[in-house]
Amino acid sequence: MLCNLKLHIMKNTILVFVLFFTVPTLLLAQCPGSPPAGFTCIPDIDFELALIDLEIDSDMTVNGQVATDDISVITSLDVHSRSISDFTGLEDFIALETLISWNNDTPTLDLSNNTALTSITCYWSFISNLTLPNNNTVTYLNCGNNNLSSINLAPYPALETFIAYSNNFNSVNFNSNTLLEIINLQNNPLTSLIVTLNTALRELYCYNTGLSTVNVTQNTAIEILWCHENPLSGLDVSFNTALTELYCYNSGLNSLNLSNNNQLVKLWMWNNNLITLDLSNNLLLQNLDCGNNSINNLTLPNTNTLTHLWGYNNSLNSVVTTPYNNLEVMDFTGNNLAGVNVSTNTALTELWLWDNQLNTIDVSSNTALQYFDCGNNNLTSVNVSMLPNLIEFYCNQNSLTSLDAKNGNNSNLDWFWAQDNPGLNCIQVDIVPPFDTTNWDKDPATSYSADCALNIEELSNSEIKTYPNPISEILNIQIDEEYQYSIYNIFGQKVNSGYLFQGLNSIDFDNQKSGIYFIEIFNNETSYSKKIIKI
User: Fold this and answer.
1) pLDDT digits (tens, 9 = 90+) for 372-391
2) What is the reported pTM?
3) Tell me: the pLDDT tens digits for 94-107?
4) How far apart (Å, rounded) are the C-alpha atoms in residues 344 and 336?
5) 3-state secondary structure 353-410
6) Strand locations in 98-175, DSSP E?
7) d(Cα 393, Cα 361) in Å, to the nearest integer?
8) Distance CA 323, CA 306 (A)
9) Alpha-carbon distance 240 to 225, whole Å?
10) 106 phi, psi to nearest 5 deg
């Protein structure tokens, strides 16, 4: 009798155990076909986990379902970056007005039942099939960076923002969307773009699309136009008097009339074919990049609004920058400038003048400079001792005979190039090495000194004697105090270095090849360089 009772209890326990673990499984198996009454199937575990994290799924359990009452009242849902591949169940979010679901993995997104939606953000989700809501109230749609090739926007006359960059659209019909203010179709293989009816348009991004024509003559309200990196045959912005920002660089333009764009603040038009550029009417201009053209006549606005000016790689013989005391960056690399007056540009932090015809340059007023390049010019003297904030300085490939870099902060100078100045014997610095000169470069015959006015010949005769010269094996050095030395070959490569003690020192040259060498002897106050011939 006792055994039968135990067996009966055991059977009931097993039955309860089986039922406990089987019922949820059976319920889960019914989805997405026939969910239990009052429930909505959520077959994607990542989707349900997101609803649990957002405290929308009231049972807080991953069981493939959610109470329909829990989701039917939700007006805003943010499930971005949750690795969701299946949005089954979203159809019962009948009150949903805002959906944010970007950065998921969702080939198909069906929003047809979400008739309350007004804002949809689903970019970067690998969507190739997007079904929009059956309503006419959508005002915002961002479906960029997906795999879409077509879309019907006709049912959405209230649409104000359409962002669909980096898809596969050849064209999009905007005729019904007359309230559109923002269109972003960049990085699509467009064959045409018609926005003539979109007179409310304020921002248009259509760069890198292959368009040869961008007609914005009817879009008089437009403020931002990015149409760069297209093979444009021309660009008419004469009717766009509200334009504040224009990017048309790398587009093959031969001319551009900006006389009517007096609200323009930012203009990037580098890498075109312009010869002249008249900006005299653009009195609000702050940021200009007109580099990589063939400009020989540049007329800048007569205001002090400019803060960034790039005019590199043109054919300019002169440029007037004196009105711009707010200018922070100036780059006229690769022109034909014989002189530049930067005395009033006291806010400059970057000045790039590489590869011009400069004979002189005065930067004594530009004490905020951090980056200064005057290399490959005709300069004989440069003084940067008044520039304590220098981080990079280049004056190589000139005809320098004088260089004062004693700015009181040499340790902050990460890059310093003064090589290819054969007439430069001495560079005046804060202290003579050893300081960190990892990215410092000079000619082997050029020495560092804390005082280049010191008579080097006197020093060599009275304090330092080197002999013989030419040498075959041993170089003798007679000194009155301790120094260090470095020996360079004719290519500027260091071949030997070490310490010299007071008295007579001998350096073995026996292992060096025959040729010309330079020895630099230095301490914390001065240095001495001399050419040595090894026979």
Assistant:
1) 999 999 999 999 999 999 99
2) 0.83
3) 999 999 999 999 99
4) 22
5) CCCCCCCCCCCCCCCCCCEEECCCCCCCEEECCCCCCCCEEECCCCCCCEEECCCCCH
6) 98-100, 108-110, 119-121, 129-131, 140-142, 161-163
7) 14
8) 9
9) 10
10) -130, 90
